[in-house]
Amino acid sequence: MSEVVDDRPPELMETLGLQRVVSIGGGRAALEFLAGMHMCHSGGVVQGGFVTGWIDAAMAHAVTGLYADRGDHDVSPISLELKISFFAPARPGPVTAEAWLELNGRSTCFAEGRLLDATGQVLAKGSSTIRLLSRARIEAASQAVAAARG
């Protein structure tokens, strides 16, 4: 397993309710989140955007973990396509998002993931086509846009 440099704003992962990175490396990742009532609608059902975000975050960690294993910390995974299938409602409490890379190319990856509740029941599954971009180039472009906006 590898150490991954996670430079996302802490508020993003806090908003998603990240509790801990369970495992990361070898093109796989598992993240534990805490679903709260503030994430729910319809009497205690977690809004689908959070479910999607949890699986997407795990797939991104699977990518960054693989590249960190190789000593490359300049890779940013950017979702080109994301599909989520919901099987059962997510409820408040701990959930685990697991992800793995199905195929890893030079500039594109194909990842899959799933969300489990505390009993191990699969709540949702997802797949993503992920573009691999240079973190340094993304940061430079973001800084240029921010500077232009003043």
Per DSSP E runs of 2 or more residues, the count of β-strands stands at 8
Structural class: alpha+beta
Give the amount of beta strand, in percent: 35-45%
Biggest beta sheet attributes? 6 strands, antiparallel
For the termini, the CA-CA separation is 41 Å
Oligomer: single chain
Record the strand order, biggest sheet: 1-2-6-7-8-5
Q: What low-confidence regions span 5 or more consecutive residues with pLDDT below 50?
A: none
Apparent shape: globular
Mean pLDDT: 93
Summarize the amount of helix as a percent range.
Answer: 25-40%
Rg: 16 Å
Q: How many DSSP helices?
A: 3
Reading the helices and strands in chain order gives HEEEEHEEEEH
Key phrases:
single chain, 8 strands
Question: How would you describe what is shown here?
Answer:
The chain is 29% helix and 45% strand. The protein is an alpha+beta fold and 150 residues long. The protein contains three helices and eight strands, in the order H-E-E-E-E-H-E-E-E-E-H. It starts with 9 loop residues before the first helix and ends with a helix. The strands form two sheets. A six-stranded antiparallel β-sheet has the order 1-2-6-7-8-5. Strands 3-4 form a two-stranded antiparallel ribbon. The mean pLDDT is 93.
